Amino acid sequence: xxxxxxxxxxxxxxxxxxxxxxxxxxxxxxxxxxxxxxxxxxxxxxxxxxxxxxxxxxxxxxxxxxxxxxxxxxxxxxxxxxxxxxxxxxxxxxxxxxxxxxxxxxxxxxxxxxxxxxxxxxxxxxxxxxxxxxxxxxxxxxxxxxxxxxxxxxxxxxxxxxxxxxxxxxxxxxxxxxxxxxxxxxxxxxxxxxxxxxxxxxxxxxxxxxxxxxxxxxxxxxxxxxxxxxxxxxxxxxxxxxxxxxxxxxxxxxxxxxxxxxxxxxxxxxxxxxxxxxxxxxxxxxxxxxxxxxxxxxxxxxxxxxxxxxxxxxxxxxxxxxxxxxxxxxxxxxxxxxxxxx
Length: 342
What we know:
The protein has helices spanning 3-17, 27-38, 42-53, 82-96, 109-118, 129-135, 150-164, 199-207, 228-234, 264-279, 288-300, 320-340; strands spanning 59-63, 99-104, 122-123, 140-145, 168-172, 211-216, 257-260, 314-315, 318-319. The protein is of the alpha/beta class and 342 residues long. The mean pLDDT is 97.
């Protein structure tokens, strides 16, 4: 597809994914800062990065899951992130024949597997992924735990980069450490104790020249270091948090490309849509029926809405109907743009 046409569709996808429907008041701030740095639509920058890095059969690591209320609900995560991770994994598998490997906290592994199955995946071990790609049979994914202990996390990061040789590492709504190496929620409270130290994986990937992509919506996720100045200046608790570290919620781990969306899931869906369009694989575009299945599975797996606190299908304060509507709009933007733009 011609770049000019792809760019116009990407602009629409960017506008949709960054609409501040949850009314948090920061979506525009984060999007404009990331857009200025990228110099083009964020979905296009992300798709180009992934397409350039990934060859058929290549491993792609996707980090997600966030135990956002470790005092109130230890061992349970929020509903933003895992749905986007499985949607993007599906697009990578269908459009680029990648081998997706999700990394998350040990306590979230089984729940993420449930969500992946709702998206049509069979869960296997990382070394088995290549067989389904070679035989073009079954949609497979691996979901593995990552270490919470700092020293163990550093070792695991080095081992994963060396053994899996990922073509890319993607973080979707994954809490990022600040300069004091503490992860915070949007209220400025520490949520890092006991959580997997996945920042070390992305730092190891960056040092090894592996392509890195971050998708977030708050300024406190892996990748938001790209726009840390804007986060510190304009996001509540960006410069000063409410925990003893006092260092603010601004994340300190950078990525090659940052996608800032109103809801991180929406950012992942938008990138997936552009990947599907670019590859001529319509099935890679996330759709309303898939969104219903995935969000219902997310709630059934005990992932809660981080804004409302409800164990109901939804994310970031918006209910199931809103997310289904966004999936429909993103898909329609691709279909209409493909048919009408010159």
